[in-house]
Write a structure and sequence with these properties.
Blueprint: E1 10-13, E2 17-18, E3 21-22, H1 27-34, E4 39-43, E5 48-53, E6 56-61, E7 66-73, H2 79-85, E8 93-95, E9 98-99, H3 103-112, E10 116-117, E11 123-126, E12 131-134, E13 145-148, H4 154-161
Parallel strand pairs: 1-8
Antiparallel strand pairs: 1-2, 2-3, 4-5, 5-6, 6-7, 7-13, 8-9, 10-11, 11-12, 12-13
């Protein structure tokens, strides 16, 4: 991937960001910390810009032009995600030295941390840590993703994303 800064693992910092990227950063600040985007798409309905770097997607609010959330995808059987990532290599995302999207790592965090499961058991919110794991029960061990976000979006993700 041309512009992406290559890292061995991504380190999630609860409610702050991933690696050196922090919520509230501008496009330019994210590019400086994480490298140039491999691809950009605009969602005109939700007014968001999505910048893909490797198997990660950085989502910016178009009104404020600041980073709102970060997805880290672990490609699996799903064609849509494979096509979206254009062959990007998955970089493990960790919290406290535990790989979140690894089957054993996820089980460890699920047992250790408070969680809220969404309808259909396809998403799990870790409210103390500021992230959701998607593709929970029906996509193990592949096809999962982490959606990390700032504290001020916790309730909206709890309600809208998990449908609880």
């Amino acid at each position: 991937m041309e512009g992406t800064v290559v890292v061995a693992t991504h380190r999630l910092v609860p409610y702050e960001g991933i690696d050196d990227v922090r919520y509230g950063m501008t496009h330019e600040e994210v590019a400086q910390a994480a490298g140039a985007a491999d691809g950009v798409r605009h969602d005109r309905i939700l007014r968001r810009t999505h910048e893909r770097r490797g198997a990660s997607e950085y989502v910016f609010d178009d009104e404020t032009a600041t980073l709102q959330c970060i997805y880290v995808f672990r490609p699996g059987r799903g064609r849509a995600i494979r096509e979206k990532l254009d062959g990007a290599t998955y970089t493990p995302v960790t919290y406290d030295g535990i790989e979140i999207l690894d089957t054993e790592g996820f089980a460890t965090l699920f047992e250790r941390e408070p969680t809220v499961e969404g309808r259909g058991n396809v998403g799990v919110l870790f409210p103390e840590l500021g992230f959701i794991v998607g593709g929970f029960r029906n996509r193990v061990p592949d096809g999962r993703y982490v959606l990390a976000f700032p504290r001020e979006l916790l309730e909206s993700y709890r309600e809208d994303w998990l449908n609880v």
